[in-house]
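Go through this fold for my students:
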Amino acid sequence: MEKAIDALSRGDVLIVGEWDRATRSLLDGIRIIERVAAKGAMLKALDRQWLDLTTPLGKGILAFLSALAEDERARILARANGGRAAARKRGVKFGPKPKLAPHQEREAVRMVCQDGQSLRVVARRYHVGHSTIVRALERASSIA
């Protein structure tokens, strides 16, 4: 979108498929309208063909639609956050699966701390990055 607006010249028309997908907030929509107007270009949204964005009324209506889109995104985010919170209460774990099983992690910590093996040697043995072994050591030291 940024590149498209930067490439506009006087008399050009920037066409977007759906206005609420082109903007993320009321302020974002207003900024887009102002930048396009400053270039002397026009803006058309295919899903809002009845809007003439060259008039103050058309710009105002488009700003209002941007506000509605922002409100909808906020409601979607609130529902998603509520769903994540409920999942956490049920014990669902988020994020990537652990690279090492608990017994492997204990063994790796023992190999470094007691046997004196280097982080990289232990990491190669388990086919993981050395930072995985570092995190295992950090977890083990916070438990001890």
Observations:
- The mean pLDDT is 87.
- The first strand starts at residue 13 and ends at 16.
- The helical segments are 2-6, 19-22, 26-38, 56-89, 102-113, 119-126, 130-143.
- The beta strands are 13-16, 42-45.
